[in-house]
Amino acid sequence: MTIEDVNTVDFSGIDRSSNEFILAISDHLPWDDDRRYDLLEQKITSYLSYLSSGQFLETHPEASGMKVRIDLICQYQPPAEHLDILDAVKGQLGEMDINFSQIVLPPA
């Protein structure tokens, strides 16, 4: 599952060190892919629906009452011109009391 599977949760779990429920997005696309932000918006919208419906508690009942974090796990480092967009995503999710982080995988 990847960012292209907009109606599917890529990964979910509990981060015991921060006591957060994590939803991760697996992003393998290059930063010049024109579909990137449309797919990211669709994926996050899908994740928000998953959260607001309470469906996540069926598979992770221990997440009840936990803070939520969405991790964007990228294969490639974002160029500087994309950082403002990612900061805007972080700000919008923050207004909903959802943390957002971006993680870049080390080169293979």
What does it look like?
This protein is of the alpha/beta class and 108 residues long. The protein has one domain (11-104). The chain is 34% helix and 26% strand.
Task: Write a short abstract of this structure.
With 108 residues, the protein is an alpha/beta fold. It has helices at 36-52, 56-59, 80-95, and strands at residues 11-15, 20-27, 67-74, 98-104.
Key traits:
108 residues; alpha/beta; 4-stranded mixed sheet; 3 helices; 4 strands; globular
List the helices and strands and how they pair.
Blueprint: E1 11-15, E2 20-27, H1 36-52, H2 56-59, E3 67-74, H3 80-95, E4 98-104
Parallel strand pairs: 2-3, 3-4
Antiparallel strand pairs: 1-2
DSSP summary: helix tally: 3
The rounded Rg comes to 14 Å
Helix content: 25-40%
Could you spell the SSE succession in H and E letters? EEHHEHE
Strand fraction band? 25-35%
